[in-house]
Design goal:
The protein is an alpha/beta fold. The chain has 3 domains: 2-91, Rossmann fold (3-Layer(aba) Sandwich); 103-307, 3-Layer(aba) Sandwich (UDP-N-acetylmuramoyl-L-alanine:D-glutamate ligase), CATH 3.40.1190.10; 317-465, Protein-Tyrosine Phosphatase, Chain A (Alpha-Beta Complex), CATH 3.90.190. Helix content is 34%, strand content 23%. The protein has 15 helices and 23 strands. The chain has helices at residues 11-22, 38-44, 55-61, 77-84, 92-101, 115-128, 198-210, 225-230, 279-294, 303-307, 335-348, 371-378, 403-413, 423-433, 451-465; strands at residues 2-6, 26-31, 50-51, 65-68, 88-91, 105-110, 134-136, 148-149, 155-159, 164-166, 169-172, 181-184, 217-221, 237-241, 251-257, 260-265, 270-274, 317-322, 325-330, 354-358, 383-386, 416-419, 439-443. The strands form 5 sheets. It has a 7-stranded mixed β-sheet with strand order 8-7-9-6-12-13-14, sandwiched between helices. The protein has a 6-stranded mixed β-sheet with strand order 18-19-23-20-21-22, sandwiched between helices. Strand 4 (65-68), helix 4 and strand 5 form a beta-alpha-beta unit. Helix 6 (115-128) crosses helix 9, helix 11 packs parallel to helix 12 and helix 14 packs parallel to helix 15. The termini are far apart.
């Protein structure tokens, strides 16, 4: 089949492209200019995407199926041309379900926080247990080396996004994934561009719980009251996990060292070890272990994979050390994630100065809905830099996050903070002021103007000249 993908450079779309290529289909696609890592992944698949949307691209590709990413608007010239030519079209979630989930056991990982880490961990543990899973994840696991796999075993792991599906389907993506089992890690307000409030976003998760079959399974974080209320009337079995005292799968006798975290798992009756730190990662591991054990994978087959788990790119990823200064990349863009990430880094580096460098880049973080919450979260670090919102001019003045005010509030809390607008100015300030032993935690769900590389280069140069 000839498949043409609109918005092929998106993380989910690029991963789906990989599945179609792996299945033997011919894949073409269009996007605006692509950047690493997705540009590299697309190239590795042998795909040379069209740059810029034009009706004639549809004629050149001559597709039998057009897959429409959720960034594509109804007035997109290629979408309009596909409709005019009466070419079959699908959203990304529809295409995944119809072509790759039939006859499988979909494990859908959902929730405001931790989806990518949990989905990656689930896929890796299943792979190490020789279950040969399929998966599609919105990030690249370091062990797996990729974000997709058809697999030949029964399980197919899907990161279940609550964001809307396509211009012709405004419901959440995860409703298409035919879950036999699901994790709900947490429910908080997010995606302010499409959800009105926390009740609106909660309603999407309620819809997810209702599509589980009677013989299905929901694994839910016992410490998240909203998630617990959401599964109260679930049509299937519910299992709880986490640090809450009532959780069925609860980590006990937790020990934290420089090598990571070890714990005894209640109900599993085994001790596990993982090279990760922080309560949120402990909860993530507990949730995934609960899911897989309840799906029939014995605990002893999961220990090795957890011990060897290397995490996900852009999740507390140590990019390098220059002049004794560690540069860490993280995807955190919600105040809860920011707070937990800072706490986790402090556990990992307990006697070092932690810098929190934050770029408001997501549709929610660029708005002022969490202005005070971001200040409280960032204040957990030792020094704070807040960049200006990405493409700030696209957010109305009355709705826009005030980065300077966030920095002022952090200072009032008692943590040294500055608003520095852009990556070049931030790099210059850090190179002048950071000292050997400091840890630079850079948080953005985008490229942050290449700040990570600029810092590693400049700090190495400073050290070499020092």
């Amino acid at each position: 089949m000839r498949v043409h993908m609109l918005g092929i450079g998106g993380t989910g779309m690029g991963s789906l492209a990989g599945l179609f290529v792996e299945a033997g289909h011919t894949v073409t696609g269009t996007d605006q200019k692509l950047y690493p890592p997705m540009s590299e992944q697309i190239a590795s698949l042998g795909i040379a995407p069209f740059e810029g949307y034009r009706a004639e691209n549809i004629e050149a590709a001559d597709p039998e199926l057009v897959i429409v990413g959720n960034v594509i608007r109804s007035d997109n010239p290629e979408a309009q041309e596909a409709i005019r030519r009466n070419i079959q079209y699908r959203s990304m979630p529809q295409a995944l379900a119809e072509n790759f989930l039939a006859g499988r056991t979909p494990l859908v990982i959902a929730g405001t926080h931790g989806k990518t880490t949990c989905a990656t961990l689930a896929a890796w543990l299943l792979a190490e247990a020789e279950e040969k899973p399929g998966f599609l994840i919105g990030g690249v696991g370091k062990n797996l080396g990729r974000s997709y796999e058809i697999g030949s075993g029964p399980f197919f792991v899907v990161e279940g996004d609550e964001y809307d599906t396509a211009f012709f389907d405004k419901g959440p993506k995860f409703l298409h994934y035919r879950p036999q089992a699901a994790i709900i890690t947490s429910i908080e307000f997010d995606h302010a561009d499409i959800y009105r409030d926390v009740d609106h976003i909660t309603s999407s998760f309620e819809r997810l719980t209702k599509i589980l079959p009677p013989d299905g399974l929901i694994v839910v974080n016992a410490g998240d009251d909203r998630a617990m209320r959401t599964v109260a009337d679930a049509p299937c079995r519910v299992v709880t996990y986490g640090s809450d005292a009532a959780a069925e799968y609860r980590p006990l006798d937790v020990e934290v060292t420089e090598a990571g975290t070890s714990f005894e798992m209640k109900k599993a009756h085994m001790r596990f070890r993982m090279p990760m730190w922080g309560e949120h990662n402990l909860d993530n591991a507990a949730g995934v272990l609960a899911l897989l054990i309840e799906c029939g994978v014995t605990p002893d087959r999961l220990t090795r994979g957890l011990e060897n788990f290397e995490g996900v790119k852009r999740r507390q990823e140590l990019l390098g050390v220059a002049g004794g200064i560690a540069v860490i990349d993280d995807f955190a863009h919600h105040p809860t994630a920011v707070a937990k990430t800072i706490d986790s880094i402090r556990l990992r580096y307990p006697r070092r100065k932690i810098w929190a460098i934050f770029e408001p880049r997501s549709n929610t973080s660029r708005r002022n809905v969490f202005q005070h919450e971001f200040a409280k979260s960032l204040a957990r670090a030792d020094r704070v830099i807040v960049a200006s919102p990405y493409l700030a001019e696209k957010i109305p003045d009355a709705e826009r996050l005030d980065s300077a005010a966030v920095a002022d509030e952090v200072n009032n809390i008692g943590t040294d903070a500055r608003h520095i607008p852009d990556a070049d100015a931030i790099a210059a300030f850090i190179v002048e002021n950071a000292a050997s032993g400091d840890v630079l935690l850079i948080m953005s769900n985008g490229g942050f103007g290449g700040l990570h590389g600029k810092l590693l280069t400049a700090l190495a140069h400073r050290h070499g000249n020092g």
